[in-house]
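Collaborator request, handled under Task 6.
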Amino acid sequence: QVQVVESGGGLVQAGDSLRLSCAVSGRAGSSYAMAWFRQAPGKEREFVAFLSWNSRPTRYGQSVKGRFTVSRGAANAKNTMDLQMNSLKPEDTAVYYCAADERPYEEYGQNSYDFWGQGTQVTVSS
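Structure tokens returned to the collaborator:
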């Protein structure tokens, strides 16, 4: 049973920073490509960032490029991922989801990922 767990959401003010974390567990020996998606109320789920299983390459959605950075998690642990979010804006408010797959056929496409976390709320006040 593969589990995906996100953490680190919260309420911040515009211009602040926040760091999200994600960890995948449950299948020994597997290496996962991982991605962040987000969904704001009344909007479709949007691609945010991608991290390959070996940490290269990384990809970003246009709306977060230059402000968000995706990286391997603490101690460079396998199957973990952090999202450092800087210069946050009210339009970044959404539920952020971590997704994982051993071989996603399309980095940006949510249908490429078999495993998903429950999501963590990020709220940015103006």
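The cover message to the collaborator said: "The longest strand covers residues 18-25. The radius of gyration is 14 Å. Please let us know whether this matches your experimental observations."
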